Structure formats: C-alpha cells, structure tokens
Amino acid sequence: MCGIAALQLRNPSLHPQMGSLLSSMLCQIVDRGPDSAGLAVYNTPGLVSRGMSTLSLLGKDQGMTTADITAGVAALLAGALPAGAAAAVKVVGDTTLVSAAVGTDLLVKAVSETLPGATIIGRGEHVAVMKSVGHPMEIAAEHGLEAMAGSQGLSHTRMATESAVTAGGSHPFSVADDLCLVHNGSFSNHATVRRELRREGVVFDSENDTEVGARYVASRLKQGDTLEEALVNLGKALDGFYTLVVTTADSMAVVRDPIACKPAIIAETDDYVAMASEYRALAGLPGIDNARIFEPEPGKVYTWSL
Amino acid sequence: MVTLTAPESTASTAPDARVPESSTVDLAVTSVRELNQAIHNAADGQAWTVTNPGGKHSLAVGIDADIAVTIEGHAGYYAAGMHQKGGVTITGNAGVGLAENIMSGRVHVTGDASQSAAATGHGGLVVIDGNAGARCGISMKGVDIVVGGNIGHMSAFMAQAGRLVVCGDAGDALGDSIYEARIYVKGTVASLGADCVEKPLREEHLAELAELLAAGGRTDNPADFKRYGSARNLYHFHVDNSTAY
C-alpha cells in the first residue's frame, strides 16, 4: 500500500495555494505509507527559475559548503554560463538544489564532477523534487511545502515492498527533464525490463521497481512517444499492479493496470485536476462539491495539459 | 475456558426517554468510532444523520438495530459493512467495500460505489444508483444488488447465491467461476467469465426482476434485460475443463 496525491492547477490564481492544498491532501494519505515520502513541485518561485536548469540532490549535507559547491560548479561551467551569470545552490529541508543557466546535461556533468557521491533525484527547468525517510507530514514541513506556490504538485507516501526503506527508494522518480513518476503497487518483471533498458545504455540509481517504470517512460518519450503512448507501451512491457501518476512540465497523466487493484480517484473542475488514492484526500479541496468525481477506468490512460 | 453468558439486563423495558428519535452526528467534530458506538447503542426506530463524512472509512458499520442512517456526502472504504438491520443511505459516492458482508437490511448509495461493493454479502439489498467499480458482488452469498449504472470487471466472481441486477453495462469476465446466483443485465456485457452463460428469461425471472427493480426504485422494463448464470460445468473437476480454471 502506498498513497498518492497529485494536483494540477489550471487556474493561475490558485498557484499561490499549491503547497497548502497539496499539503492538506498529503495529510489524508499518510496512513497508506508512513515510512517515507516524496514531493515534486512545478514552477515554484524560489526553487526553480525560468531559463535555468535545476538539479535536486538527495540530502542537505553534500560534504561541501554551498559556497564551495557553487564555486566548483561555476568553474566547470565557465565557458557555458552566460556572461555575468553564476550557479546557485540552495538547501531546502533535506534537499540540495543546484541551478545554473545552462542545459540540464551540462549541469548534471558539472554537479557529478563536483559532488561525485551526490544522488540526483530531480532535474529540469520547472521541477524541484524532495524526498526523505520518516513521517510524510514532517518531511513536508521540513521542506516548507505549505508555503510553496506552483502550477503542479505531486506527492507520495510509501509503504515499501519491493526494495528497502531509503530516501533513494522514495517516490517520485524523476529521471528525465521535468518528468516525475509515482507508483502505488509493484512491478513483477522489473528485473527483466531493467536488463533490457541497461542494454540500451540506460543507467539506474537503485534496485527499485518504480525506477524501472520511470526509466521506461523516459526511454519511450525520448524515442518520440507522447506521454499517453509511453504509458500505453508501459502497460505492454511491465507486468504487475500499479496506479501511476506521471507529470511533465505542463501535463499530468494517470493510469491503472487492467486489473485495477490499486485505488485512484480523480476530481476535475475548471480550476484544477486532482488525483488521490482515496476520496478523503480530495474532500478539502475548494469547490469539491461541484467537481466531476470519478475513478479512472482500468487500463485507460488519462492525460491533462496546462 | 471462558463461559459466555448474556449480560444481565439493567435497562428497563420502556424506551429510554433520554434517547432522541433522531440524532445528527457531525464528523467534523465527532470521531468515526464515537459515531459507530452511538449507532450500536441505538434503539429501533431511530433516525440518524451523519454530516461531513469527508470520505472517512468504516462509517456506519455493524448496525444491528432497525434504524435509518443517512450519510450526507461521500463515504470512504467499507461503509455500512457487516450491515444487519435497518437502512443506510449515502447521498454521495462510496469507497471500496461498500456493505461488505451485509447480512440483511438495506444499503443505498445515490452516487457511485468503488470496487468490491456488497462483497460476500449474505442477504439484504444493496442499491447503487450510479456505477459500481470492479468486483461488484464478488463471492456474493445471498445478497440482492441493484445497480442503476454500469459495473466493472470481474463482478459476481465466484457468486454463490443472490441476485445482481445491472441497468447499465457489465465489464469483462462477468460471473467468472460462478456457482449459483442470478445476474440480470440490461446493457452490454463486455465478456462472460468462465462457466457463466446467458440463460432464458422465463416468467418467474421477469417476476423476480420486477420486484428487485421496484425495490431498487427503478422504472426499467424487466423484459429489456438478459439473464446470466452458472453453466455448472466447473462444480466438479473434469479434465476437459482444466484450461478453464
């Protein structure tokens, strides 16, 4: 059992409330996965900036001061950074964010050389990813979710089954620019698919089954699939139980396996699309009494774009 | 060794004057446990209203008195489970496992119900005005279920007794491995499960269907339905059926 709560805000006037709304949803799914949790927030001022790539690193302590990380990354990017621009490093809760006005691949290279032991848990221009072990509401509070603005938010509370309770095994898995995936369930043939992806040159960070799903989606998107096509293909390649939520810079998708053992419920209004494992996580949303509320059909991919 | 004896009655046989005929419980300020304890202590004939359910789980479970409970809003998992007597009306949607193991009495949902509605129900009536999710009536053992909309896949899986009426469409593998129970579907059936077959709709079926539809507050014409039930080929192992298990 795991818990998922996701929110896409269509009405920009709700963006300042993204964190408080997501926090109230997360609060109701804690029981479903109290051992660890993760958050992904999109277009949150103070965490990401337009025209800059941001990497989210696991842990607040990277073994170097933020000034040393900034200097190290900036030195490696010297030729690529625009004139007068610098790298920026910020610690938010148990997460280190590194930003610079260069492409993500270049920034990944510079950060990996500066901090060889760092685990990159999020990347892109729009997304910041935060995850940790412990009570989900404490993790949310530590990262200051309540006060965060943004266009989309995704949260996950984990009850680990397929791999250890570690921050690295927490969801979301963000393995390509602005792409995040969370999972309630378990993939049974993840080892096979992991081997196939490794043969294609894909590098894995963990032994976690969900990472395989995320890397599979990233691989399909890279090959030209739309988000919907990638998730239809995932249904053919990966076997097991799943309710998945996938977010990109401007869209959100929900899919359940054809047996649909894992719950999901969606509320849609003109102002937002919200998805959660259980209705009680949606009950406090504004205008919920007039929302279109439905359970996603088994095996059907739903997508919404901003 | 423990000897169980009935507790000595300390209450007078006259109705307790302190118990009101109707009560409202606001779940914004009262816990689910307090609600369930209160309705377990309730006396026959009372009417209870539950406000602000907020999708909470296990609402109005184990009712064993002839009371009417109305839940104003959406209920979470296992609402009206183990229902024994009286009626529960949910003016909204219900989560997983609505009226699980209902024994008798009536449970009515005006919206949709999630998966496994009326699972293992032994008796009573479950009415869902909207759609029901997957596995509706799984392992039903005597309950009657009337669904105004569609039902999901694997409904009436291993059904043993009771009646399931569907005014909309049925999902895949309807009545898979069914022992007995009668299934009536007005719309389309995506596919029938192992050993579930269409059967003739005779006069006695039209009559019982009319009764069930009336009990569910429906105005559909019984003649528009088809009946499905067990081919009884899986009752005993037969090597020719080995691939059907």
UniProtKB/TrEMBL annotation, chain A:
Pfam families membership: GATase_6 (PF13522)
Keyword Transferase (UniProt): yes
Keywords: Glutamine amidotransferase, Transferase
InterPro entries registered for this protein in UniProt: GATase_2_dom, Ntn_hydrolases_N
Domain of life: Bacteria
Occurrences of domain Glutamine amidotransferase type-2 (ranges): 2-306
PANTHER family the UniProt entry points to: AMIDOPHOSPHORIBOSYLTRANSFERASE
Protein name: Glutamine amidotransferase
Upper lineage: Bacteria, Bacillati, Actinomycetota, Actinomycetes, Micrococcales
From TrEMBL, chain B:
Stored SUPFAM superfamilies: Alpha subunit of glutamate synthase, C-terminal domain (SSF69336)
CDD domains: GXGXG
Annotated region described as Disordered, given as residue ranges: 1-21
Source organism, top-level taxon: Bacteria
Compositionally biased residues, Polar residues: 1-13
UniProt cross-references to InterPro entries, sorted A to Z: Glu_synth_asu_C_sf, Glu_synth_lsu_3
PANTHER family for this protein: TUNGSTEN FORMYLMETHANOFURAN DEHYDROGENASE, SUBUNIT C (FWDC) (PTHR39673), TUNGSTEN-CONTAINING FORMYLMETHANOFURAN DEHYDROGENASE 2 SUBUNIT C (PTHR39673:SF5)
Protein name according to UniProt: Protein glxC
Species of provenance: Pseudarthrobacter polychromogenes
Lineage, highest ranks first: Bacteria, Bacillati, Actinomycetota, Actinomycetes, Micrococcales
